[in-house]
Design a protein that fits this description.
Length: 451
């Protein structure tokens, strides 16, 4: 409720030209009905399993026993695990099906800052072939779910999951990590998941990572990590379908939402795409991108809708990125009704970004990028409006820009220009004027239905 009031105020103050999109009082458009919220009659408390909320006693055993009880008693309609107010220090633990993890107002689940030698390790994801940042296995996420369904993580107001990431960020900076850092939450091979009304703080690495999942709803979450914290992506739907991300505030040290599907020869062989991803009413800040696709797209990414996005103090507003050797595709992406304030760049698309898992990638495996629409984008204090750089052997096609106004920094000397290469499509009502490749084809071809 508060969030929707804030959104309307933001709309009124900042999005003058889009006011018609702000008045959504009646039926608020939502995708969250893909997973119905469930009430659970069976309720247990972490206190019943020896949980101690003093912030210094380890509760790993209490979490494991409570979840073991849920898994083996199999109550009809599932079980809610209640976390009362207080700070519960814990190591990594795994969820089971048919459960709700409910954090009361004032409840904090906090990752221990123990030595990493006892942190559990798990096998690499097949679509990555190794840990994302280092070869070999990877540390398991703080809260993990593999092969589960009907799981809800929710709470009252500021129930918090705190990754205490500083220890991990320092290991990254000092190059003393042995394996890839843990996500705060990862669901693998899972379906019918809801994450709502929880705050995520200081993740060691990516915050929320659904991978090989379907039907995932993430809404009314707040995700915070310092701007200089390395690789603290907000939400990364990865080789997953039907993911609904709505009504959230994300401010981290890396991309706020990044849609992925594995990389290079591993992602191509695994061949699992991300599709049906909706990202709506999200706002936040980052030195990297607000909405990103890639650069890991080897299984393909299609049918993504991002709309009503507010981005403040950004590196890049919207970033669509792949690399040589990635293969896969990026198709049918629509980004609309975005407000950007103070950014280095508004829109960037590139076919050559990022790193590789190893040097065995096929240099002829190029990503097909087509059918990308940017509509109703308004920016102020944007140093460069955009660059769209395809590959000569795999040009970007069907790139449609409509009603885009990206104003520079007042008083700045440089004339802001779009940069394009190996791109085709069309542009209308774009200011400053778009690159000739798009402007000259105005009104023709594949963009007609997007305008
Ligand atoms: C959550 O709210 C309670 C009550 O307002 C407050 O005492 C507590 O400090 C808050 N916790 C966090 C992590 O913000
Ligand atoms: C394109 O993606 C949208 C979701 O953004 C979906 O509704 C639509 O059906 C897709 N179009 C095609 C041709 O698949």
């Amino acid at each position: 409720m508060i969030r929707s009031v804030l959104w309307i105020l933001l709309c009124l103050s900042a999005m003058g030209p889009f006011v018609k999109h702000c008045f959504v009082f009646g039926d608020v458009v939502t995708c969250s009905d893909i997973v119905p919220m469930r009430h659970r009659n069976d309720v247990i408390s972490i206190k019943d399993f020896g949980g101690i909320s003093d912030g210094s006693t380890l509760n790993t055993q209490a979490f494991r026993e409570a979840i073991y009880r849920i898994k083996h008693l199999k109550r009809r309609g599932g079980t809610l695990l209640y976390i009362p107010p207080g700070v519960y220090l814990t190591e990594s633990f795994s969820l089971t099906s048919h459960m709700t993890l409910y954090l009361a107002k004032g409840a904090v689940i906090r990752a221990t800052q123990q030595n990493t030698w006892s942190w559990p390790l798990i096998a690499p994801l097949p679509s990555y072939g190794r840990g994302r940042e280092l070869p070999g296995w990877r540390y398991r996420s703080l809260i993990h779910g593999d092969g589960v369904h009907d799981v809800i993580i929710t709470g009252g107001e500021n129930g918090t999951i705190d990754g205490q990431g500083a220890m991990w960020w320092n290991m990254w900076r000092q190059k003393t990590l042995k394996f890839t850092r843990p996500n705060l939450i990862e669901f693998m091979n899972s379906k019918n998941i809801i994450i709502s009304n929880v705050m995520f703080l200081n993740s060691p690495f990516w915050n929320i990572h659904p991978v090989y999942c379907s039907n995932v709803v993430i809404r009314y979450v707040t995700i915070l990590a310092p701007a200089d914290s390395p690789n603290t992506d907000g939400i990364d739907p990865d080789s997953s379908s039907n993911v609904c991300i709505e009504d959230s505030y994300i401010s981290t040290g890396d991309d706020l939402v990044a849609v992925k599907s594995g990389w290079d020869e591993y992602g191509i062989a695994y061949g699992r795409k991300s599709s049906g991803i909706t990202i709506r009413r999200i706002s936040g800040s980052s030195p990297f991108a607000g909405i990103a696709i890639g650069s890991e797209v080897s299984g393909g990414v299609e049918n993504v809708l991002a709309e009503h996005i507010g981005l403040f103090n950004m590196g890049i507003g919207i970033h669509i990125k792949s690399n040589i050797g990635r293969g896969g595709f990026i198709k049918n992406i629509t980004v609309s009704d975005v407000y950007i304030e103070n950014a280095v760049k508004g829109i960037r698309m590139t076919g050559a970004a990022g790193d590789h898992p190893d040097d065995k990638f096929n240099p002829n495996a190029l990503t097909v990028v087509k059918g990308i629409t940017f509509r109703n984008i308004w920016g102020v204090k944007v140093q460069q409006p955009g660059s769209i750089q395809g590959l000569s052997n795999s040009p970007f096609t069907g790139i449609c820009l409509s009603n885009i106004n990206l104003y520079g920094v007042p008083g700045s000397q440089t004339s802001p220009l779009w940069k394009c290469s190996d791109v085709s499509g069309a542009a209308r009502l774009v200011n400053p004027s778009p690159c000739a490749e798009l402007a000259s084809t105005y009104g023709s071809g594949s963009c007609m239905t997007s305008f």
